[in-house]
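Subject: for your reference before the review

Hello V.,

The reviewers asked for a structural picture of the protein, and I figured it would be easier to keep everything in one thread rather than splitting it across files. Below is the amino acid sequence we used in the manuscript, unchanged from the supplementary table.
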Amino acid sequence: MDRQVTLPSGAFDPAKTPALFRAVFPSVMLPMFMAVGDQTIVSSALPAIAASLGEVERVSWAVVAYLVSATIAAPLYGYLGDGFGRRRLMFFALGVFMTGSLLSASAPSALFLAMARVLQGLGGGGLMSLSQALIGEVVPPRQRGHYQAYLATVATASAALGPVLGGVVTEHFGWRAIFFVNGPLGFLAFALVFRLPSKPGVKTEGWTFDAPGLLWFVAFVVPVLVALERARHFDPGALEMIGGLLTVSAIALFLLLRQEKRAVAPLLPLALFRQPAIWRANGLAFCNGAALTALIAFLPLYLRVTHGTSPSQVGMILLPITIAIGVGSIITGRLVTRTGMTMPFPSFGLIGASAAMLFFAFASSRMSIAQILGTLSVGAFFMGTVMSVVQVTVQSAAGRRALGAAAGSVQFSRTVGAAFGVALLNTALFASLALGDDEALGVFARVVDLGPDALATLEPARRLAMESVFSAAFRAAFMFIGVFTSIGIVLAFTNPSRRV
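And here is what came back from the structure prediction:
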C-alpha cells in the first residue's frame, strides 16, 4: 500500500507536483463516483428487480429511499466531520455504504431492499459531502477550483452513466451484481483514503450533539422529498397527500430553525447562511442541480418519443453531453486557480447555458439528432462553470471550523434541487399532455413503449395532432431548465464573493 502523503500547508500547483495530485484526487474521486452513481444506477435495473422480487408497486422505493437518506446524511456528516475529523468519518461512511450494498444485493423482498438502500444512502451521503470537504481541508483556497472541477466532472459523469452501466451489468450479470460490485470498489477506496493526512476535528467549547436539530431536520426533509416523488407521477388523487406532507414539512422547518438558533453546536449553522456569499452560492447549487439532473432525466424520454432511440443509443448521446460538462468544469477550475476569480465564470457561463436551453426548448421539434447533440453540448459546457466555483466560494467563506457543514450544505442544496427539478419538469410535461388532449396520456405511453411507430396506427390528422401536443408538452418541460439557469444568472451576478 502507498505510504500516507503529508501535504504542505502552502499553495502548490498540481501540474508541478503530480505525486501530490495523485495522492489527493483518487482518494476523494472514487468515493464520490460510488455514491453518486448509486443514485441512478438502480433505475435501469428496476424492471429486473420487479420481476425477481415481485411487489411492482414498491420497487421504486429503492430509488426514493437512497435519495432521502443521502440527502439527510450529507449535512450530518459535514457537521460531524468538523468535530471529529473528516478522514475518520470517511472510513465510517465507507463501512456503512458497503454494508448497505451487501444487504441490498442479498435482499429477499422489495421492502428489505428499500431498507437496505436507506442504510446505503446514509453512507453515500457522507461520501459525497466528505469528499468535497476533504479537498477544502488539504488544498489551499486558490487551488481548490482545480480539484473541485475534476470532482464535479466525476459526479456528473457518474450520475449520467449510472443508468447505462446499470443496464449493462443487469443484462449480463443480474441486478444483484450492481450492488456486489461496491465490495471491491469499497476496499480500494479504503486504501486510497488511508493515504490522506489525518487531521483532528475542531470542537467548540461545550460541544454536544444536536439531536433535536437532527430530529427536526429529518422531519423537514423526508416529507418534502416524498411529496416531490409523488408529484413526479402527476396523480391528481395524490394532491391531498402532497399538501399534508408539505404542511408537516413546514411545521418541522419552523421547529428546526427555532432549535438551531439556540443550540450550542447547531446541525445547520444559521450564521453561515446569513452570509450572502453562502446562501446565494447554495441557491446556485440548487438551480444547477435542478437544471442538469432534469436534462439528463428527460432527454432519454424525449429522444425515445421523438426519434425512437434505444437505451444504448441514448447512452452514446449522453456521453458527449457529459464530456462537455466536464470540460467546462475543468477549464473553469483552471481559470479559478490562475486568476483567483470565481463568480464571474458562472455569471457569464449561465447566460450561454440559458440561451442554449431556451433555444432547444423552442426549436427541438425541428432538430436532427446531431443538432440536438450540438445545442445541448454547448449548454452543458456552460453549466459546467458552476459547481466547482460554488464549492470554492462556500468553503472559503465558511473557514476551516465550518468547512464540513459548508460542503454538506452545497451537497444538500444540489440534491434537493435535483429532486425538485425532475418533479417540476415531470409535472409540466404530463400536465401539458393532459390539457392538450384527453387521449394524449394513453398515446404517449404507447409511444414510450413502442417508439414513434406507434403513431402510425392513427389517422393522419390525428397523428399530426398528437405530434403537436407532444411537442408543446416537451417545450413546456424544457423551458423550466432555462428558467433554472436564468435564476442562477441572478444569484451568480449578485454574489459578493468574486475572488479567492
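For the response letter, the relevant points are probably these. The two ends are 35 Å apart (CA to CA). Residues 1-16 have pLDDT under 50 and may be disordered.

Happy to draft the paragraph if you're swamped.

O.
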